[in-house]
User: Fold these one by one.
Assistant:
Number 1:
Amino acid sequence: MSQPDLFVVCRNCGSEVSPYVTECPYCGQRVRKRAPKLDRSGGDPQPKRRRRRPTLPRLRAEEIAGIAPERRPYATFGLILACLVSVLLFQADDTVDLGYLGVPIFEDPWRFFAAPFLFADQIGYAFVALAAVAIFGTLLERRFGPLPVLAVFVLSGAVGMAVVALLETPPLFTETDAFLAFGANGSALGLLCAWLVDDRLAARRSDERSNDLLGVYVVAIVLVLLSLAEEAANIGAAVGGALTGTVLGLTLPLFTRKSAY
């Protein structure tokens, strides 16, 4: 291994100066552009350090395996935003037909999928239903990703509206018998039941998650009572959405996120 020079000679005054300076201390002449690096190894070659592969941190006390809490529930936010936009559109022009399910007059199949996103001017109804969607949509999306949340919301709402059209159509009707069915009550119950089924299946596998089920049951009761009190919400939509969410909840383990946690 080459050793650094003990001194260098200044070309201007001929003085011997340290090799670790850039200017001659006697005449100020620049002797080199930069000082050489100091060899701190004591002359022995140092082995190259291997970079450690990043390791995952241990689960913290508030974290649950299989959930990536840093991921934002964009699909849930998107569903809620779409519902809020429909409210604004109704406020701008209440004569526009956005896809309300008119029983038994307007029962086109595409309305089954559009009606769950609509709330007209029912602000209280929208607040309760969308609050439930926000809670259980977020929980499902953090565990299974966005696609199952979208599927449960859309299918539960559509099946709920189909049940309304099936059960609420009398053999003989007049225009005065018709009413509008809309809103995400069935979709909210579908998300709740899908989450509850997955939670109970996990408990049977001895994967107890210590969730507050009392609060879940309270939300479910509120949504059912809302269906009984609000004609647009309709108990048929609640029953159809809950049953659909229960069935889809059985398939959720197929979408388990391979999370870093």
Note: The first helix runs from residue 74 to 92.
Number 2:
Amino acid sequence: MVIGGGLAGCEAAYQLARRGVEVTLYEMRPRAVTPFHHTAHLAELVCSNSFKSDDPLRSPGMLKAELKRLGSLLMQVADETRVPAGAALAVDRDRFSAEIERRLDELDGLRIAREPVESLHGFLDEPDAPVILATGPATHPPLFAELQQLLGGDSLFFYDATSPIVAGDSLDMSRLFFASRYGKGAGNDYLNAPLAEDDYIAFRRALLSADLAPLHEGDEFVPFEGCLPIEELARRSEGAMRFGPLRPVGLKRDGEKVEGLYAAVQLRREDALQKAWSLVGFQTRLTQQSQKDVFARIPGLENARFLRFGRMHRNNYICAPRHLLPTLQLRAYPHVFFAGQLTGLEGYVAATATGLVAGLNAAQLAQGDSPLEFPRETATGAMLRYMVEADPDNYHPTAFMLSMLPPVAGARGKRARHQAFSERAKNKLEAFIRERLPAK
């Protein structure tokens, strides 16, 4: 069985079913709710609608290329439901989830159970029945309590946040302009709100004085460094936002340089009809009223209607270096696999990759074969090796980075090095597929 109907769980269930293994996919929603899901759909994208860069020479793009070559359902559907986003792969989140549900519903040998799993009791002693835990950062509390007990109380957490989404018909288009940085994609895939220097400084002051939503009682604020709330970024230095999501570089209005452009807020479309736009890089812990007040200072958003407010949430994960193998098996119970954010790996693409690997290896085990380790020179293999070899006393969430790959001799310069990484990863993956992966 696969527990959890998010990205990792859906990919895992698909990989099992396509290999002829009967599988039940458990999803607790709508019977049980979480602090940050907005629907009961499978594969709901709770944060942004972006799977990040499609460039195979960059970290997300390299990992996505491997997933596509390995037959990932989620990557196929993401391509089919994409919306313009420059060099990134962004999707219409509603169409994406609906299509994943439809494809899974049609699969022979796959049953979807809409009920929470509260305990692994009875499954731990059945080594012939693999279990995949892909319950995400909001694992059902009774199940997470049992996991903590199983792992000796060894669990971790951090705080993540989502960005607000505003209605397209509430924006003042006269104050905004279409453009993509450096003309990537169609060249006009994003809406941009220009800020002069005085506007930027006033906006930062408003962020720093705004009210914050409370944390869980007794928690300290532990952010994910790869996805900092906009107010935390503002707090770090006056220029942090300008060198981050509000960087003004590479933007032209109607092909001309924008005079007085000190910073720029970008909005990414959420759907093909442009009815909804998300604020790029504006994940936030501000209260809803503060979001209304502070973000109204952005040119063009003075009367913005919020379809969804940004929200902070607590993400639980396990100490993977202590408990997992690079095959995603639990050391103490090798027929139990972990996938998704519960492993401490971050981002949609990493979640999809761990789901694919867990599904593949659970199928191997169910069919009497040994689980497979991906080559360290591939993005998938490097990410999983990093996960299990990290310092267990200092294990923090991370997405795949090219620095996790072994060095390439003789490659000089950044681009040449990235090209060498990419070519070597492709060759290693092709050899792995030929030699190790069973025909489906």
Note: The radius of gyration is 22 Å.
Number 3:
Amino acid sequence: MTTVEPTDALTLPESDATTFASWFACLAEPTRVRLLHAVATSAGGSTVGALTETLGISQSTCSHHVRKLAEVGFVHLRKEGTATVVTVNQACCSGLPHAADAVMGLLAPRPCCPGEAPADLTVRALRAEDWPAVRRIYGEGIATGIATFETSVPSRATLDAKWLPGHRWVAEIDGEIVGWAAATAVSARECYRGVAETAVYVGDGHRGRGVGKALVRQQVTEADRAGLWTLQASIFTENRAGIALHHAAGFRTIGVRDRIAQRDGAWHDTVLVERRSPVA
């Protein structure tokens, strides 16, 4: 899918309107919507033959609509022997919502934040004794394959040197560190002193319990208080939960960076999200 620039809240650029119109026009055919849904919900993709059976349509009809989806960039096609395997373009998961938000004028900054934190959870500043737990949770994030391009946990010294003082947080339940959040300056240049890149990690076994919401709330509110005017994050397109978390905290999708870097020899796309402070 083509990456688009962030759109003005009042005037939608003609180039963006043309791009979005091509996406919407492609999906104006119900069979294509059903096909895209079938491919997006099929782990590892699906063959044209399997899609034909799933949707109850002829193979020629299926092939025709799959080609239309591929032309726009909603799906990728690859040959495996005599079969054509169809896989979803993960950038669609962010590109389509971005297009809808742009058209409907929803890209203005939104207030923070996700809902209230669980009653048994405390978010506090990182202390020296927390580093082993923080690095362990970092490793658990690496193991998911969709949290970072890192393949080994950085040293304490490396993290301590790059994380901004006053913007390092841990989440604690019953004395156990279950997640952390930190911000890193994007540049040493004075003009970018208020711009930081953020990271939020939740430990294995504690995801989906509101830990990430509590951490991002603390992260964003403290950034506003400290005068950071822009927070940004690069999130793997496959990490839908992470993208949703940031959207709920007032981040907007700026674009999708195609094949931005490799992990374990495979190229990955990332979604660039950004939050502008309503305070600064």
Note: The CA atoms of residues 132 and 156 lie 9 Å apart.
Number 4:
Amino acid sequence: MGGLVVTAEAEAKADVLVRDGLIAAVVTGISPPEGAEVIDAQGCLVIPGGVDAHTHLDLTVARAHVSDGWAAGGRAAAFGGTTTVIEHPGFGPAGCSLFHQLNTYRQNAAEAVIDYGLHGVFQHWNERVAAELPQAVSAGFPSFKTYMTYDGRLADEDFLAALKALGQAGGLMTVHAENHAVVSHLAAQLKRSAPHLAASHPQSRPDYAEALAIETAIALARAAGDAPLYIVHLSTAKGLEAVRAARRAGQPVWAETCPQYLLLTDVCYDGDFDEALKYVMAPPPRKKADVEGLWEGLADGSIDVVATDHCSFSWRTKKELAGGNIFNCPGGVPGVETRLALLYSEGVVKRGMSLRRWIDLSATAPARLFGLPGKGDIKVGAEADLVIFDPQAEQKITAASLRQAADYTPFEGLTVRGRARTVFLRGRKIVDGEDFLAAPGQGKFMARRPFSA
């Protein structure tokens, strides 16, 4: 009671009444029912639990598994104010069913402590996959990911066919947009000449590789009857311009970026080799001009979602597998715990972003785009995923102070303003100050609705 309730639509002093895990009322001056627990939110913001639409809590690549797993990753998310994640599974066995990874990840998620959904993944396209696709969408998996690089990428002809079929089935295509020919050609050269230099990593994945892939994906979506398209982890100003051009032409295209692309630049590859391994990710951090361009995209509405691409291979694992070769280092950085505070501190406090825009980017828009109508909002009938957020609390981000399982953070030493103080999942308190109250298995699978623009 007594907090400033902030949604994507409004902000107002109000009280929130929760009953049976749902929001029963949002009004001023509620008289608490007898026996109800009353939470004092004076001086704080009451916001919907964050929805992170892009995580890899349970990813295995080659010999390496990320640090988290569902319990540790969910605990980290909860302490950061995120109560729902949508996980991107990795590739399954060659030729596997469309349901293989979805079923495997659901089984692994038995210990989840926050709610979760699953994206599907296309790693090949054939008649069997096409036949399974409508079943998958109707079973609660209305979004699928396609890679435009890596071994599991789809050829353009198959990508177009998948775009068309997914759009017709009521789904949304998400795409990792880097041009494979450019990336593989440059990487091959640098593997021969300078694998010992950390700067070879961003040089092998230039900004124009992303922009070209986005333009290709947009063209294929247009040929597929204006199939809806969502660009994950947008990192460049050039790529953003391609998104803007498509929107001006009337195409249904959305874009996501991540805190690492809003705060880091490629100077992180200039120092010690082992230290630089912390920042190996795909795409890599870019130039200062790209950082500013992405902030402008958040301000003018060209970017719709801030997710994390949380992928927490430990620094120890990165060093062991790299063995002095930057191209052997597994890519990805942890971030699910720091997203809300970083976006508040860097966006709202420092750049004048509105509180409503902050909530839309981090909770409401991802819930809307990915078919979670009961999440990401504070309204009667919504699930009572609530965060009491202290806007004045200062915290210094360090690996030692975070609850994640990873042994580093790419934002080490950064002081931010704002912190989740108390977190509720479906009306149950799961974070209370420094205490974590959720148990493995408390998180539930969220079958998501078909896509609707």
Note: The mean pLDDT is 97.
